[in-house]
Design a protein that fits this description.
alpha+beta, Nuclear Transport Factor 2, Chain: A, Glucose Permease (Domain IIA), ten-stranded antiparallel beta sheet, six-stranded antiparallel beta sheet, 21% helix
Length: 460
């Protein structure tokens, strides 16, 4: 006895029954074509959903976001055939924060993406190879389909910069840089010194970097280790930067004044026609001398220039041909001017040392360093870090011994800089441009100063 199978109404695409009516066959074939087109030819909406999601700046260490499944439209009922809904595979976005010691391989493992996908990405070009050098705190966002295949990767370097890698139709990775511009607004702070510039600046709401920037602007005119007195005051206008209404940092100082021992110095930032930014007096004279006053940021002088000083180690009268600056071990030491390193080495009395030649007449020396950051023959710029404070050689504690020689003779580093020429002023051809750019800044600083100084006088 033969088994009779009950006819089924299920239609298999590409394999129609042998005795299927011609009208129905044509209808089914058309529906199959519609289904194939709907599944394999993405609409703009579908294509958009395949793009990697942007990095969520407020995400936790690991976050997962599922995109909504994309549904295929059903064929109209009047065609006589009900087609099943086809769904495109789900795509996930996973954000990971780079930890100390993390490698790119570690992050791919945490994202459950194969090493083969990683090597394919790294082989896509120079920009992708930079992913091998990640920094703690950076964020990677993986966009992966249901099969674990990488569709895109976004590297959030900071709040403003993101590098995206996206797989194209030919399965190759393309990259682009997304750069956001923060909003900038001027801010004003003023203060009066009671004990130190750092304390007064902090009390006024200035960050450490802004305090150091202000000291750097006046470093050729004011020795912040020697010249500061109680009652000195400052007024500073700078940029504050905001992103989506939230402050993300400070921009440069725009205009600043500093009153030291009754003398007031003013400076304004000017960006010249070449795009270089420097600080000048309101008249256009450079604030920058050939040498800055001190090779360290604000510190304490432990021993002055003295040709007849009693040596602290040998207890005998020996010339002290420089200035000693007491500072914590590891404090950065700067070159006080542009020049060329003529010596970088170690000796028993000097410890680690660096000597720099500035033009034909001037030489500066830096002794007792913990580390040397430059080599003999190297060119250096003013305020370039050349080493760090230490106590190597004949030293009783961490400090920098700094010497200044003119034509081979030792001169007092604390006073010689005042006698040296400044850098070039604003060229006469740019004076109109200089005034148009800087006068509004100086006027705004003066408007801020009026009420602030009046309040300061009332408080005193």
């Amino acid at each position: 006895m033969q088994n009779h199978r009950k006819p089924t109404s299920r239609v298999r695409i590409g394999a129609l029954p042998k005795h299927f009516p011609r009208v129905h066959a044509l209808t089914a074939s058309a529906a199959a074509c519609v289904l194939v087109l709907a599944v394999f030819i993405p609409t703009p909406e579908v294509e958009a959903k395949r793009m990697p999601l942007p990095v969520n700046l407020s995400s936790t260490e690991e976050t997962v976001t599922d995109q909504q499944p994309v549904h295929v439209e059903k064929v109209a009922p009047e065609q006589g055939i009900a087609l099943a809904t086809a769904a495109v595979a789900k795509v996930q976005s996973l954000s990971l924060t780079v930890r100390n010691g993390d490698t790119l391989s570690d992050l791919f493992k945490r994202a459950k993406v194969s090493a083969g996908e990683m090597y394919q990405l790294l082989g896509s070009g120079k920009e992708a190879k930079k992913l091998a050098r990640l920094n703690p705190g950076e964020e990677l966002t993986f966009t992966v389909n249901a099969d674990g295949k990488l569709q895109g990767l976004a590297l959030q370097k900071d709040q403003l910069s993101q590098v995206r890698f996206t797989r194209d139709a030919e399965s190759r990775f393309q990259h682009d840089l997304v750069q956001r511009e923060p909003d900038s607004h001027p801010a004003y702070r003023q203060g009066q010194i009671d004990s130190s510039l750092f304390v007064a600046g902090s009390d006024a709401g200035l960050s450490d970097s802004l305090i150091m920037e202000m000291a750097d602007v006046f470093s050729s005119d004011i020795d912040f280790a020697l010249d500061i007195r109680k009652g000195d005051s400052f007024s500073v206008m700078f940029e504050e930067k905001f992103l989506d209404g939230e402050k993300i940092g400070n921009g440069p100082i725009l205009a600043v004044s500093f009153t030291n021992q009754g003398n007031t110095y003013s400076a304004v930032r000017y960006v010249d026609s070449s795009g270089d930014a420097n600080y000048f007096t309101p008249e256009g004279k450079s604030m920058r001398k050939a040498f800055i006053r001190t090779p360290l940021d604000i510190v304490r002088i432990s021993s002055h220039f003295n040709p007849r000083r009693l040596h602290p180690v040998f207890k005998s009268r020996r010339p002290h041909n420089g200035t000693d600056y007491a500072a914590p071990r590891g404090t950065p030491v700067y070159s006080t001017g542009d020049g060329r390193v003529i010596a970088s080495g170690y000796s028993k009395p000097n410890g680690n040392y660096v000597f720099i030649q500035h033009g034909e007449r001037y030489v500066t020396r830096y002794l007792h360093l913990t580390k040397r950051k430059v080599k003999r023959g190297q060119r250096v710029k003013q305020r370039q870090v050349i080493g760090t404070v230490g106590s190597t050689g004949y030293a009783t504690g961490p400090h920098l011994h700094y010497e200044f020689l003119v034509d081979g003779r030792h001169r007092n580093p604390a006073t010689i800089v005042r006698k040296l020429p400044k850098a070039k002023s604003v060229p006469s051809a740019e004076m109109t441009r200089f005034k148009n750019q800087t006068q509004p800044l100086l006027a705004k600083l003066e408007n801020y100063q009026g009420p602030a100084l009046a309040k300061l006088e009332d408080d005193n």
